[in-house]
Every structure is written in C-alpha cells, then in structure tokens.
Amino acid sequence: MRIRAPKDFWAGLIFVAIGGGFILLASQYRLGTMHRMGPAMFPTLVGALLVLLGAVLALRSFVLAGEPVPRFYARPIGISLIAIVLFGLALQWLGLMAAVAVLVVVSAYAARDVRPLENLALAAVMVLFSVAVFVWLLGLPLPLWPDR
Amino acid sequence: METLSNLAFGLTVALGWQNIVYCFIGCFLGTLVGVLPGIGPVATVAMLLPFTFGLGPAPALIMLAGIYYGAQYGGSTTAILVNIPGESSSVVTTLDGHQMARRGRAGPALGIAAIGSFIAGCIATLVVAFFAPPLADIALRFGPADYFSLMVFGLIAAVVLARGSLLKAIAMVCFGILLGLIGTDVNSGVIRFGFGAPELADGLGFVALAMAFFGITDVVLNLERSGKQEVFTSRIGRVLPTREDLRLSFWSIMRGTSLGSLLGILPGGGALLASFAAYMLEKKVAKPPRAFGEGDIRGVAAPESANNAGAQTSFIPMLTLGIPSNPTMALMIGALMIQGIAPGPQVMTERPELFWGLIASMWVGNLMLLVLNLPLVGLWIRLLAVPYRLLFPAIFVFCCIGVYTVDNKIFDIYQIGALSALGYVLLKLDCEPAPMVLGFILGPIMEENLRRSMMISFGDPTVFVTRPISAAFLIAAAALLLAIALPALRAKREEAMQE
Lengths: 148, 499
Description:
Number of helices of chain A: 5
Shape of chain B: globular
Low-confidence stretches of chain B: none
Number of domains of chain A: 2
Strand content of chain A: under 5%
Oligomer: heterodimer
Shape of chain A: flat
Largest sheet of chain A: none
Structural class of chain A: mainly alpha
C-alpha cells in the first residue's frame, strides 16, 4: 500500500480528526431524540458526515493518483502569525499607535525583500493613517495610548 | 407597474445626499483596494466592513454593495494591466485584456470594461427589481423543512459550480457548518465547543474567519510565490474605444449580460462562473471569429459585462431567501446581522427602504463607477506601481484593526491568527475556503430549521420528501451531485475550469 495522492490523504485525515473531535466534544451535551433534538444532535450528524467524507478521501488516495503536498515555507506564515499576536498584545497593553507600529515593522520581515529604513517610514505612515482614519474620522473606540 | 413605483421609491432613498455620498465612498474605496493585485472582493469587503459600523442599515448596505462592485471593477483593471487577476472572476479578462495592453490598446480595453460593466449593471438592476419580489413572495410560504432542503440545495449547487475537488468541497462545507455551531445554542442555552473560553460564547467571528481565509492566508501565499510581473503603466493611450470597437462589442456585451444575469441567480454562480461561461460562449458564437486570446476586444467586453451582471443578480438569493450564493454575499449577510437585521424574505416587506434603496443604489453605483473609472484610470494605474512589500503590511493593519472593531475584543485578533494558520494548511492541501464560509453562515440556520421541521413532524424524517417544495429541492440537489459524478460531465467541467 502506497499513498498515491498525499494532498488528499492528509486533507482526509484532517477532516476525520476534526469531525471526530466535534463528535467527541458534542458527547458532553444532550443528544435528545429526532423529535426533540438536543444541542448535540446536529453537530454529531454533521461531524459523522465529515468523518465519512474524510475517510473516503483518505482511502481513495491509495488508489487514485494525485499531487504531492507542496512545500511549507516557515518564514511568511510564521512571521505573519507572530506579528498578529504581537499586535493583539500591544493593543491590549500599549494602545493602537504602538500596536500598528509593531505590526508593520514585524510583519514586513515576512517578505524577503524588506528594507529596514523604508519599513520604519511605512510604519510611521500607517500609524498616522490608522489614527486619522479609524479614530478621528470613523470615531471607532480604539485606545490610542496605554490606559494606565 | 408596482415594481416601477417601488423602484422610484428606491431611487428617492438612494438619491438622498447621504446615501449618494456613501455609495460614492464605497465605489471609490472598493475600486482603490480592488485594483491592488492579490486582494479579491471578499477580502476588500471584509477589510472595509468597519467603515460601515457607524452607519444605519441602508447606508451601510449601499456602501458595502458599492465596495463590492468597485472591487469587481478594480480587479479587471489589474487583470488588463498586470496580467494578475485581482480576483478569480477576472481571470478570463487577462486572456484578451492583457494581450490588448501588450499591443498598446490598454486604454480601449479598460474603456470597454467600464462601458460593458455599466450597461450590464443597468440591465441587471432591472432584473433584480423584477425577479426579487415574486421570489420573496414564494419564499414567505416556505416551511422549515422547505428551508432546510433549499439550503442543502444551495450548498450543493455552490460546491458543484466551484472549482476543485467535489469531495473536499463538501467536506469543507461540513467543517464550516461545525465551526458555525460554536457558541451558545439558542434552544438550550448550552455553550457548545467553547473550550471554557467565555469569548467563544458568541461564536466564532465571521469577519475573523473571512479575513483570515481570504486576506491573511492570501498574502502569505503571495509572499511565497513572489515573482516579477510586467506592468503596463506608461502607454495607456486614449481610454474611449473607437466606434468600430463599440460596434464590434455591442452584442458581446448583450450576450454577456444575459448569461451573467442568469448565472448570477444560481447559488454558487455569481461573477466567477458568469465570466467563464460568457467567454466560452463568445468564442463559439462571435462573428467574425477573430483572434480570441490575442487581444480581441470582445474577449474583454463579454466576460466583464457578465461578471458585473452576475455580481448584481447574486443579490437576488441573498435578499429574498437570506441565502448567500458566494462568500461576498455571505459577508453581506454577516453585515446585515451585525446591523441587527435577520436576512430573509421578510426584509422586503419589513424594510422596504433597505430593499429598494439597495436595488436603486446599484444603478447609481454603476453610473458612479463609469464616471469614476474612465477619468481616474491614471490614478489606479499609479497604485499598481506600489511594490507588494509596502502593500502587505498595510493589509495586515486593516485586517487586524478591522476584526478588532467588530466587537472591540482583543480575543478576535488571536482568532484571526489561529484561523490564518488553519487556512494556510487547508489551502496547501487544495481545500477551498469558499464552501466553508457558506457552510459557516448557513450552519446555524440549517440546524434551526431542521429542529423545527422535526418538531412539527414528530421526528419523522420523511417530511423532507413528502412536502413537494422540499422534495423538489432535494431532487435538484441529488441530480446536481449525480450529474457531476458522471465522468463525461466532469471532464467537461474540468475543461471549462482549465480555460
């Protein structure tokens, strides 16, 4: 037995895991009857369907040939995620201006052709822009500075 | 005649100075963001959603609609000048449009796209005005079982007409439904799948989901690809097409418009399918069959009219049934819900100013796009010269601030991060996000209708096949699935998607 469609195989496996996970989590709620469906009924039904589809997908990948899983590049996704998390932390503790600056400065490194000085300038522009548009123009309740 | 008086009423709403301003802002911002390569209409609408929070429902929806067709149009500009479709529905525009640009005819290509879109938009507005009310009337008579089956049909149709693997698409729908069920169950008050996090009691954020899957992951994948593109910014020439161009493309525009209007109504149809189908039709029927793929103006006129018509008629199922036919419409429904309006057939009778105002504003918006785009083409082109390394951090800023302002919860920012990671893995495995987003929106509504129909039928599942309307939808859904499973038809579908 050889996996001939790795993309389908892994997608199928993920779907089985997700469907199974939802069924497992749903088991702590009341199932009810078909007449009076409890909160667990619908998620269990859909989860079962997802497990079934995932299983078919994964098993089929032993028969039908398909594409290999493409390479995962750590840098773009990794740095983007770090930048987003830092934005959240900074917005909570330091306010909007610092958060936008951090987001721009860090996320720019997700690309290979980053230019440090240009990046700082962009951060400054984006800070000014966000404050002007979101806070002054649209009046959205965003904390500009640290609260305390 | 009632339709005409309703349209007139809608025009008084749409032509109120406030709504005109919002329509203008929407079209302008939509085009502005839509022109930027690599940002599709879904991401554009999601990113600009916070701009509508301070508005009432009617201006908010009018502005969002403006953003939507602005983004559509902006995508075509990118397609013609950079050969990168700004969105999937302008993929075919790159074929002849970019060839025209290479031959120094970028101006007329942009011009005919604007003119074609305008004509298509005007006709499609009338189609929406005449077809939506009777459909809403029918929908008002639907019972819960009928609704459930309609949604099954809608989801299946959306999946069948989408690209990629059918099995994966249906699985993604299921995954979307499950994600949509996270949060407080309205019937029992139980918080489902909350992992003890009180922030999840209100459910997963739809805006976070849309931005993660269509904004952040798209940027990440673009960064992985990064290659040089040739941009034609210097020689645009005159924008107005010649009389010969207009004569040649008139029937293409008409054919594109009719096909687009028709396909837009179908669930899963919308702009994408419309533009593909229109281009294929044009290749078959256009006389003389000159060189398609080598810069034939009709190869721009037809799909551009079709995608605009389709974009507009896809509002019909959204407005009358409360069912999104594509992710953008799902966002519109999300926006309606944020405004506290339950989408469905009752919107037309309960909020006529919203319904007819939106329809009339479509026409106003199309006029604006025409006057905005022909003179401002120079400005849009300059935007294309902005390098991506400057652009994408700005996209991140918009996404992060946008998702926070929906509820002012820091938690939503971490949500967008987690969902982006998930979206990245799924996209790498060729699992398309569009079906998932539809499932996410429809999941809770389906559960509600399933529960109600089971209550009424005392737990008898045959109710779905004994009620004629419900049975018709299920048969249609089964027929669609069967049709796509048949090898001959599947080959045809793949061929169509290849082009």
